[in-house]
Amino acid sequence: MKRVSAQILLSSGLLVITGLLSGCGSGNFSDPPAPVITPFSALLLPGQSLQFNATASGLPLADPVWFVNQVAGGAAATGTITSSGLYTAPTGSAPATVQVSVSDSAHGTPSTPAQVSFFQPNNFQPGTVSASNNPQVALYTLSVPQGASLQVQFGTSTNYGLTTWEQKAPQAGGAVAILVAGMRAGTTYHLQGVVQLPTGNTVFDADRMFTTGALPANVLPNLTVQQPAGMNPASGVELLCLFEEASQTQLTAVVTDLAGNVIWYYPIQPNEPFPMKLLPNGHMLVVNGNVNPNLVQEIDLAGNIIFQLPLAQVQQALSASFPPLNTFHHDIAKLPNGHLILLVNYYQTEPGVGTALGDALIDWDPQKGPVWTWSTFDHLSLTHAPYGTADWTHANAVVYSPDDGSLLFSMRNQNWIIKINYADGTGDGGILWHLGPDGDFTLPPGQAPIEWNYGQHYPVFLGPNTAGIFPLMFFNNGNGRLLDDNNDVCGEPGLTPCYSSVPIFQLDESNRTAQVLQEINLSPAFSTCCGDANLLDNGNVEYDVAADESMPGVSYIQEVIPAQSPQLVWQMNITGQLAYRGFRIPSLYPGVEWTQSAIKTANGD
Q1: pLDDT by residue (tens digit) across 539-564?
Q2: Cα 375 versus chain centre, distance
Q3: Which CATH code, of 2.60.40.10, 3.40.50.300, 3.30.9.10, 3.50.50.60, is assigned to 128-211?
Q4: Same CATH topology for 36-118 and 128-211?
């Protein structure tokens, strides 16, 4: 009995010890996690170096051992790597790929290897061209090495002519994808990738072909162009924000070349871009107006939605402080910090006045929502209502001033452009000045009141300064223009008819003085609404006459040489649609200018 008991005790003890060891093994003595390498893939030139890093459980490895193709420290044929993880590619021929891995010397746990490929300038993997969501836009993809950049040249022949912008390779090299836009519909184009290497050398991909989709005739805007002989328009293409007047099919968000060919569009018709702007990141910012739900959208050139903001979401975020919002309208600004300045309007009932329609500005942080708001009802008096209170302010533009972080705000039904103390979101919203009749500036004798802004649209800064002393251009519609000190109004029987103009004002904020440096008098043209104006790179002026009373049903955009008698350089007529805005942009790519000769070369004109 004693012997049996001893055996039982011994067995029990072994079981206990085994259990304890098993418990320890599943807890404190488990294998350490495998190291993680960053970057996980790379594309390098011969002789190029790249720093790899390794962590375990989020912490750097204490004593890493680096391998190339399982050889510690690597070798000349596959590349070498230091104890700190600095890899250097082989200078001559190399295998297609190598594997970089690391282990913790204390435990020997290996990582999943990172893949390193090599870009040989005389023999590299060719790019690919594929269709996008927009039949006039191709997607060009090519893998390029660390420190390189890619752009695409394109045209109807191998003379090409036009280029996209340059896009940099990922940090460790790899695939770069560029949307190629600016091609006419139903046309075959040649596309070629151009790689700028960090060595200063340029290499070219093989020529690729892409045929754009055709556009049905019933969706094309009715555009005609005239260009007097010998005249050379400024560089660029025309961005159009069109409003439907009859058709429900015609494109409304459009970019054309100066021959009137559609080279890009966003298919939102019969809805209207209210407005549409090309952003510094190459996307389009669109207020998808007069539609339910009312939307702000940021899209890429293929029409993919990058960001979308419904009016209902803004309303919900402001429900405690604002009445129901009516609509996004007329303008929007994207600030350098990524915030949006939204322009909305809403109705409010005021004692002794009744219901008025006013405007508000909302600083919208895409991450946090509204962070600053401003309302005309809080900062303007309802007694100032040149056109009544039913549409009391009718704002149409908001412009950011980088010099002092303020906002310029154009209100056509106030005949005012005002400056708001925004101070990059920290300002109290106070009005710093009013520009226009009964405002805070004085004009030289003989210029007031006829030169003041009346029903104006689209103020733009022209010089490097946006505060202090600076020039400001806008489209002066001229509604109700005062002709003299007797307050005689244009268009009344026996008096000068109303007319539109394009002035350049110089404003002195300290002295509160203004003067008209230059003005293009468009008489007898009188555009009762809409419009814009800008100074082009060649010194010419372009403006959109959207609703000339003498040409019903036709909007027209003109480029002229400014002078006492402006000389027409180029004109586009838009029939059957209202051109709310129409203006020249250098190209579809920020920082890239398409000359008219390059556009002709690209299209074989």
Answers
A1: 999 999 999 999 999 999 999 999 98
A2: 26
A3: 2.60.40.10
A4: yes
pTM to 2 decimals? 0.91
Return the structure tokens found at 317. Answer: 């975020």
Residue 19 one-letter amino acid: G
Per DSSP bridges, beta strands 174-180 and 114-118 are unpaired
Sign of CA dihedral 247, 252, 257, 261: negative
- pLDDT band at 93, cuts 50/70/90? confident
Structure letter (DSSP) for residue 589? S
CA distances from 459 to 73, 297, 520, 543 (A): 63, 23, 15, 12
Instruction: Determine the residue type at 598.
Output: A
Q: Which of 83, 35, 80, 81 is nearest to 60 (CA)?
A: 35
- 104 band by pLDDT with thresholds 50, 70 and 90: confident
CA distance 542 to 527: 15
Task: With a cut of 90, say whether residue 368 has pLDDT above it.
Answer: yes
Q: What angle do CA 460, 499, 482 make, to 5 degrees?
A: 90
Please report the sign of the dihedral spanned by the C-alpha atoms of residue 277, residue 281, residue 282, residue 284. Answer: negative
User: Which tokens sit at 387?
Assistant: 């056109």
